[in-house]
Amino acid sequence: MLRRCVELMEPLNSALINLGMETVTSYEWTICKEMCVVLQPCEEVTRELSGQKYMTGSLVIPITIGLIKALENLGHQNIFMPLVERLRQDLIGNIKRRFLNLNQSKTFANCMFLDPRFKFYFDDAHVADETKRRIIGLVAAQHPSSDERVEAFQSMVHTPSQTQSIWQDFEKKMLGIQPEGTPQSRAIVEVQRYYDDKVIPRTDCPMKWWRSHQAAYPTLYKIALKKLNAMSSSVPCERVFSAAGNIMNERRIRLGIRKL
Questions:
Q1: What is the pLDDT of residue 253?
Q2: Which of 29, 76, 80, 191 sits CB 3.0–4.6 Å from 85 for a disulfide?
Q3: What is the spatial distance between Cα 12 and Cα 30, in angstroms, rounded to a whole number?
Q4: Which residue, 88, 89, 127, is CA-closest to 108?
Q5: How far, in Å, CA of 57 to CA of 54, rounded?
Q6: What is the b/e burial string over 39-61, where b = at least 16 CB atoms within 10 angstroms of the residue's CB?
Q7: pLDDT tens per residue across span 47-78
């Protein structure tokens, strides 16, 4: 709204004069223009996190880091009026204070790690390592143990008592030969392979990437399906209720089910 007022500066001043009201001074218009510059990154954050056609949970930590950096860079690149400069500094201080422990959110940290666009964007190495260990634990919990794999193999082996199969000797030898390794070690290998894979562009869809790589990371793919759908805000839900309110209201309460 503030930007729109700046765009309509001359018509607004003319209207105020015609109404016999005090007009906005050039000093105040300058403040409004500079405030639009300072608030523009905040508008971009609001627009990004309010989306409903893409995942927003993995955006929370990266976009907060980017917002702080953008506001700090504005101070380096511009000389604002004292009032606007105070606004910029207050924004940075309040964001840092309010989201001081944002990295400690397991939900958003897991989303960020499982998003192939942002897995390296942690600004705290300790948080990155802790999140990686947590994902390894989730993957290990999905892997069967060695005993379970042996039992599964044995259940598939069927040797008829009176007939001889050409695979009988193979199955007998394979009963005692199983790859060494624990669920934890296999989880470490899978997570590390994912971590060493290349980063995809920010505009790419992470779920399309996971669908094309599910054969390479089968267990991580299952975890990504469960963890990556976290929402950053309630805006999409509120849009659903608003749309329902436009369809079903007090003046249209007799609508049938097919109309909803």
A1: 59
A2: 80
A3: 15
A4: 127
A5: 9
A6: bebeeebeebbeeeeebbbbbbb
A7: 888 888 888 889 999 999 999 999 999 989 88
Task: Quote the CA–CA distance of 209 and 114 in Å, as a whole number.
Answer: 11
Coil/strand/helix, residue 257: helix
- The answer to whether the CB of 232 falls within 8 A of the CB of 57 is yes
DSSP, collapsed to helix, strand or coil, labels residue 99 as coil
Which residues, in sequence order, are CB contacts of 204 under 8 Å at separation 6+?
Answer: 117
Asked whether the beta carbons of 228 and 57 are under 8 A apart, the reply is yes
Cα separation, 8 vs 116, in Å, equals: 43
Q: What are phi and psi of 119, to 5 degrees?
A: -65, -20
Tokens of 102: 């944002």
Distances (CA, A) of 135 to 189, 215, 249: 12, 18, 46
* Residues sharing a CB contact under 8 Å with residue 106, sequence separation 6 or more, in sequence order: 131, 134
Convert the pLDDT of each residue in 160-193 to its tens digit.
555 667 877 777 777 666 666 788 988 999 999 9
**Nearest Cα to 149, choosing from 180, 185, 172?**
180
Residue 242's pLDDT band, with cuts at 50, 70 and 90, is confident
Q: Would you say 181 and 146 are in contact if contact means Cβ atoms under 8 Å apart? A: yes
Residue type, 133: R
3-class DSSP assignment, residue 255: coil
Amino acid identity for residue 256 in this structure: G
